[in-house]
Amino acid sequence: MAQPQVMDKLVSLCKRRGFVFQSSEIYGGLGSVWDYGPLGAELKKNVKDLWWHAMVRARDDIEGLDAAILMHPRVWEASGHVAGFTDPLVDCKTCKARFRADQLEDAKCPQKPSRHPGEHSTCELTEPRMFNLMFKTFMGPVEESASVVYLRPETAQGIYVNYLNVLQSSRQKLPFGIAQIGKAFRNEITPGNFIFRTREFEQMEMQFFVKPGDEGEWFERWRGLRMAWHRELGLKPEKLRWHEHTGSELAHYARAAYDIEYEFPFGWSEIEGIHNRGDFDLTRHQEHSGKKLEYFDQAANTRYLPYIVETSAGADRVALTLLVDAFREEQVDGELRTVLGFHPRVAPIKAAVFPLVNKDSMPETATELFNDLRKRFVCFYDDGGAIGRRYRRQDEVGTPFCITVDGQTAEDRSITVRHRDSMAQDRVGMENVAAYLAERL
Ligand code: GAP
To answer: Distance (Å, rounded) from C-alpha 172 to C-alpha 176?
Structure first.
């Protein structure tokens, strides 16, 4: 299948089956803002739950945080975002389109035939000007410069300004980390590729505070752990790779940075960044707030500003990666079968329960089983249409197991479990179904 076609098919499947809808669609949509439907909300929740479990609950040395989106405006002066979180923007006076000046080779002029901006004789591009990506709003009833606040462009700063609060209240010692999941906003000039680059998105960020000198070792350790996490989601290992940032690619805060990239239909692109931020952030916040942010190292009887290793992933990008990685079409008995081959861990629905036909007490038995299973797993009940069609509908949304109550169930209380990928069926006693699923999920 041609690669661009994969994205078109996926976007259409996401809408048709309730994964992702365009924001405010009935009003014509809002540029690069998306809403998650019933199945998309489950998928993204699974991503965030797995991240939170791996980063917070399964570790003794990381604490969770849920900081507010709105922060004191001086936070963004200290962080460097007011001065430096900018992209070079050019406008075309002819077609009124806007482009990133540093990405003109990847952009398309809206005029036909298809060419890059500036290549048509009628193109009239302005000189590049720096455009700040932060969304501004006003706190209180007066719209004046004194009341400007920003929608946070990253969740990390909420962690830095709370680092002493968390340290003291949790009685942690270095090395330790703070993790949070939350919305971030960027007024991207060239968003796109569905939910890959959007103006409102969710980040899953962890800042690990270490003694100066230990950051190199922790940087390597976190690189290994984060790549392993993506593989455990079931992503194809050959589709994942590292990209090291060098020279001007390095963000203003980073001493070293590696991206975890995935090979999307539109090319290799970043899904997570691992950054050695040194003492940049705490130094800046200490200077701008006038508050001492040093750590007292009891063992060494000395004070210092910790260094920070950051892991920063996008929940939406990981969700898109899972969708792309899982999508496949295959011929089965002369018919096209569309499958989202999710790892059971991330699948939005874990099991679907069907009565084979709507008679002979099958619906009653299937409902009883469904009500029992849904206490433990996200399940779906479907009694509509031929059984083959019901299987296909679940294949398309990635449900790993379909359970059917049939004629034999009344005789020996057994049901069939049909596996999404192999389409093989097992006969399992009704009493054992929950354990059967738990073992495989
Ligand atoms: N605190 C560091 C930081 O924010 P970043 O590389 O700008 O670093 C980290 O962003 C991650 O956030 C990216 O790897 C990506 O997954 C996600 N992300 C960034 N901008 C995004 C956007 N416009 N839409 C969706 N996800 C985005």
So the answer is: 7
Q: What is the distance in A from the centroid of ligand 1 to the CA of 14?
A: 22
Instruction: Specify the amino acid at residue 28.
Output: G
Ligand 1 pocket test: which of 154, 180, 204 has the largest number of ligand atoms within 8 Å of its C-beta?
154
Q: How many residues are given for the chain?
A: 441
186 pocket-lining for ligand 1 (C-beta < 6 Å): yes
Residue 3 has pLDDT above 90, yes or no: no
What are the structure tokens assigned to 433, written together?
A: 């179904």
Atom of ligand 1 nearest to the CA of 203: 12
Positive or negative, the CA dihedral 249, 317, 79, 147 is: positive
| DSSP structure string for 211-277 | -TT-HHHHHHHHHHHHHHHHHHTT--GGGEEEEE--GGGS-TT-SEEEEEEEEETTEEEEEEEEEEE
Q: Which atom of ligand 1 is nearest to the CA of 312?
A: 9
pTM of the model as a whole? 0.94
Is the Cβ–Cβ distance between 257 and 251 less than 8 Å? yes
Cβ–Cβ < 8 Å for 103, 110: no
**pLDDT tens digits for 321-373?**
999 999 999 999 999 999 999 999 999 999 999 999 999 999 999 999 999 99
Q: Which residue has the tokens 């791996």?
A: 54
* Ligand 1 center–CA 85 separation, angstroms: 13
- Looking at ligand 1, which atom is closest to the CA of residue 196? 25
Q: Look up tokens 């990685």; give the residue.
A: 325
Cβ of 198 closer than 6 Å to ligand 1, yes or no, is yes
196 secondary structure, DSSP code: T
Distance 283 CA to ligand 1 centre (A): 23
For residue 384, count other CB atoms closer than 10 A to its CB: 10
| C-alpha to C-alpha distances, 241 to 197, 258, 270, 275, 393, nearest whole angstrom | 19, 10, 9, 16, 33
Q: Which two tokens stand for residue 147?
A: 């009341």
Q: In this structure, which residue's CA is closest to atom 7 in ligand 1? A: 154
Q: Is residue 272 lining ligand 1, measured as CB closer than 6 Å?
A: yes
Ligand 1 pocket check for 197: Cβ under 6 Å? yes
